[in-house]
Every structure is written in C-alpha cells, then in structure tokens.
Amino acid sequence: xxxxxxxxxxxxxxVWLSNFEAEPFWTPEGMLQLxxxxxxxxxxxxxxxxxxxxxxxxxxxxxxxxQPSDEAFLSYLADLGFALPHILCVNAADKVMPIxxxxxxxxxxxxxxxxxxxxxxxxxxxxxxxxxLEEKISQRTGLNTIGPPASVFARVNSKVYSRRISKxxxxxxxxGWECESIDELEAAFQEAAPILExxxxxxxxxxxxVSGKGMFMIDSPQKADSILARLRRKxxxxxxCAFVIEVWQEKSKDxxxxxxxxxxxxxxxxxKEIIAEGGMxxxxxxxxxxxxxQLDAYKRAGESIGSRLRQDGVTGIVGVxxxxxxxxxxxPLLEINARFNMSTFQMKIEGLLPEExxxxxxxxxxxxxxxxxxxxxxxxxxxxxxxxxxNIYGVLIQNFAxxxxxxxxxxxxxxxxxxxxxxxxxxxxxxxxxxxxKDSLARFSCA
Length: 447
Known about the structure:
4 domains; 16 strands; 13 helices; 447 residues; Dna Ligase, domain 1; alpha+beta; D-amino Acid Aminotransferase, Chain A, domain 1
C-alpha cells in the first residue's frame, strides 16, 4: 500500500489499532541499550490500554481488541453518548505479545481484515503508532494506510533528533550532548566531568526510551566511568548507539502538549500538566497551572516544531514532552512522540465537560485475587459517576480492561489499574474525588 496516501475521503472506514509500546519497533536491530527491568504483568496492563480506542472510534468504524469488552462497560460508554464502533477480537493468548504480532500470527484474522478491505476499498488501518509491523499488516491484508512510512516516525521519535531540531530552531534547550557512538559518549562524559565534580547531576537517556525506561542518573565522574565501561563491554558486535546526556534540571512542572500537523497548518490541540506520585507518572491535569507567558511560549514552540516536522514528512498527531524549570523557564522540546498519546483518547471526552472544569486524568493501581465485574466497580462509585445529563462533575471511567488484565482462575493476587478522569470545580473537589476512588477500590483489593 502507498504509505503516503492522500487525505481520507468522507466515506472512509477506519480500523483502529492501539499498538502501545511502539518504540522498540523503531529501534534498529542491535542497538546498544541501557540495562532495564520490566515485568510481564505491567506489559499485560499496557497492552489492554487498547480499550481507550472506544473513546475515539465510532460506528461504522472498527476497533481491534485482544478480548471483548465488558458488556456493562460498553453500556456505560453508550449512556455517556459514545456511538460505539464494531469490535474485532484477535487471537492473542499471550498477554504481553504486541498486538500487531498477534494479528500477523492469526491467519484467519488477517483474512477477515482482507475481506473487509475488499468490501470497502476505502478502509484504512489507523494505528496508535506506525512501525514496520503495521506496514506488514497493511501489505498482508490490503488495508490502506495514511501518512509517512514507519522509517520517518522512527527518525523523529529519537531524542537525538529532538535535541538537534530544538537547537536548530533556537528553542531553549537543556545543556547536553547527542551521542551516536561509544567514542562520542566517552568524549561527552570527559567534557561533562567538571559539571559532575561541581555537584550537578547528569541524566543519560536512550534515544528511544519511553515512560521513564532507558534512563540512568549520574552524580559523579566515577559513576560516569562505570556506566561507560559497562556499555563498552556490552557493545561488542553492536553497530548502533544513540544516547543523549543532559544536565539535570530542577523543575516545577512536566508539561505535555499535542499538535495536529497537516499540509496546511499546525494546530495546538492541548497543553496538559503531568502528575506524578512517588516519582511515578500517574496521569495529567488540565487546564495546566501555568502563566499566560508560558502558554504563549508553548504556542510559539508548537508552531515552530510542527512546521519543522512537516518538512521531514510528518503529518498527523504528535505529542511533545517538555518541562518548566524551578525558575519558570520553559524548555519546550525534550522529546517528540510522533504517535497518539494518552491525551489523544480524551479529545471527544473534553467536549462533554463543563468549560470551567478542572480535570485530572489518573490511574489507580489495584491488586485483585479474582476478576472484578464492571457493575460492582461502578456501584461503589455510583453517586459520583460523571454523566453529562445528570452529574457534570465526578468520576469518568476511561478504561476497564486494564483492571482485570492479569486476573486468572487460580485466585493468585494479580496487578491491575483503573484509569479515570476526576472532574471538579476546584482542587478541593478533585482531592475529595480522589479519596473517594481510593476508598472504593480498597474494598476490592486483596493487597
């Protein structure tokens, strides 16, 4: 299929595919990486975030899921006013297998997608992120795709690329280095030695690290020497290396903003403040608590970044991670995520909310020894559940599949997460809703 297809016609049908954790598939084979830990149960939860697509897709479109959604949850979304799409379920017995691999492994499912493509020649595969796997699905099934090829997304999602265009565009850029070889990494550490000796920390990041993975804090020349020696040993036979080193910044806020890049213009879709608890990313709040001058800085940076990305062939939704330092300075480009973002799935929801609402998008960890039914969960929150016609403030449940993502029949404790929006008129109301959700979930947890 043509990977640079024209704009979709009005009669087009979409097949939504939420292939979260796409970054590994943009990473060249043999790329040198930092040591990292991952847990299978976390992977299963992230994979079930796919259910978020139900907040964007609508009939007559299709959404690909691993398992059918809870019928009561679907009724809940329909009651909120969502015109739910058709759901297609792929055979994905392995909970941590990327969904695009599961699709390619399921011959019968691919044949069904091919039949869908033949039935309507204007059917488009719309992935969360385009990698070589989604291009293979397009080739295998005959589904159209839009936008640039995966190779373009792989290039612009690199933190090396982000730093270089940040400097090229004259944006405020955190002092640091881009390194594409072990020798460049060693030279950067040598140059940074006086900074470390002064007591200032550095952070080493993989170019394709995501969600806090692929990062290493360095607070002394000795630690720099240690990680460099470890990477040299590990690099035997590896031809690829891509890291950035940055001087650690004390920050007041983490900000994510979202752009829509088309051939005609660049639109700033949202600016949201990331929230964390105990150093862990838990969600975000909007509108962000920033000054008018800081918001203006994001508008200018967004236009500049979007125009620059378009020069490299990027169109569609792009997320940008940034920080505001403790002194109030905006560093508007730390990392480009040329794919959907969690904020993308809230775009239709935002149209249901009161203009004056303060909103926190958040997830709550859970530990269950048996699967939880949606009706039981909703019953515990019944009097505070958001509804545009009955209760314009309260709790809106964004995803239910992640709650039971690891539950099995053996009764062993299993990790899950509940993703919600807390909608209130003030911080005090948001804090009250937060307590209410925690108290309600404690009734079901076996931890």
